[in-house]
Amino acid sequence: MNRIITNSKVVVTGGAGFIGSNLCEVLLKQNNDVTCLDNFSTGFTHNIEAFLSNPKFKIIEGDIRNYKDCQKAVEGADYVLHQAALGSVPRSIVDPMTATDVNIGGFVKMLHAAAQAKVKRFVYAASSSTYGDSINLPKVEHIIGNALSPYAITKYVDELYAKNFSDLYGIETIGLRYFNVFGRRQDPNGAYAAVIPKFVQTLIKHESPLINGDGSFSRDFTYIDNVIQANQLAAITPTEVLLERMKGYNATRGIASNNSDDKSISEVFNVAFGERTNLNELVQILIDNLSKFDAEIANIQIQHGPNRAGDIPHSLASIEKGKTLLGYEPGYSIRKGLEEATEWYWENLK
Ligand SMILES: NC(=O)c1ccc[n+]([C@@H]2O[C@H](COP(=O)([O-])OP(=O)(O)OC[C@H]3O[C@@H](n4cnc5c(N)ncnc54)[C@H](O)[C@@H]3O)[C@@H](O)[C@H]2O)c1
């Protein structure tokens, strides 16, 4: 069965961001027409610079909160890979209104425009933050807890809208609950930077990385190439195949079907590697990797500060559902991914 998107028209919202630009790059290599809709609020021109001269790449500088921009982007599209959102739990605690406006308001506009345009499938970036305070480990898709931040609420509300629009308008939707994604082009700067690029940048500058808490908190860090694979499988796995596999999967686990008429698809999947690494271990791997380029980095000491509001202690995904239904097979462990990522950061940040 085909595992990659080829010869199609694909919309990537948030295509100038970290995950979106990586999706655009791979899709262009695979001979697709790619339309990127981005307002450059957290994305950058330098992320898409290399594609601007490609006639198969189209950039719409616009906002997912503007319905006309959404309509323009989805015209004639086969698939939408919706990545645009305001990420970061702390950002949403500081400014819950904008997070809600973009992540729910903008999401509904994109979803509605995609439903009207009758795209084949709407794949969207959901989040592991939806598991909230659930202590269940590993996280399985049908058991979630109470949300711990406005960001987590927005991502869960998106899932509810996706399911509802699938029932009402027949649009096929797949939400991918990403777990701490890392890799090339992830922004290391600013107050809301993700932990891996931030630590890499700090170490390259010979400064001590500051871990919130004692470093025992753990995450299922996920390399970008695993995320790209999941997006492609989510878009192209045929409806009949998914429905058939879903029946078997749900039956063996005693899960009620999420699809009311068993004809339209509306599912969510964890996207992770399925292994957890604590923050102390993470920093040690980064130090080991970067010391190969600069031996002095081996002597840098780690600092510890207070825990951060909204952070859960541990996160680990079950990836069984993705493996069984989509044929998801993440090829990159955290160590393999960090080797590539640190090399990229060394070339680009030093
Ligand atoms: N990186 C992770 O670990 C992670 C984890 C879980 C979920 N996610 C989700 O994955 C998606 C991509 O995340 P990322 O890490 O690439 O973040 P990013 O900030 O690098 O990319 C987001 C992109 O969306 C664009 N954008 C934001 N608001 C917009 C708007 N109103 N209209 C148009 N474009 C807009 C930004 O300019 C940026 O280019 C987001 O939906 C995020 O919530 C990411």
Question: Could you describe the 3D structure shown?
Answer:
- It is built from 12 helices and 13 strands.
- By secondary structure, it is α/β, with parallel strands linked by helices.
- The protein has a domain at 9-185 and 221-272: NAD(P)-binding Rossmann-like Domain (Rossmann fold), CATH 3.40.50.720.
- Strands 3-2-1-4-5-6-11 form a 7-stranded parallel β-sheet, sandwiched between helices. Strands 7-10 form a two-stranded parallel ribbon. Strands 8-13 form a two-stranded parallel sheet.
- The longest helix has 21 residues, at 96-116.
- Nicotinamide-adenine-dinucleotide is lined by residues 14, 16-20, 37-43, 63-65, 83-87, 102, 106, 125, 127, 178, 180-181, 194.
The neighbouring-strand order within the major sheet is: 3-2-1-4-5-6-11
Oligomeric category: single chain
Low-confidence stretches: none
Could you say which structural class the secondary elements and strand pairing correspond to?
Answer: alpha/beta
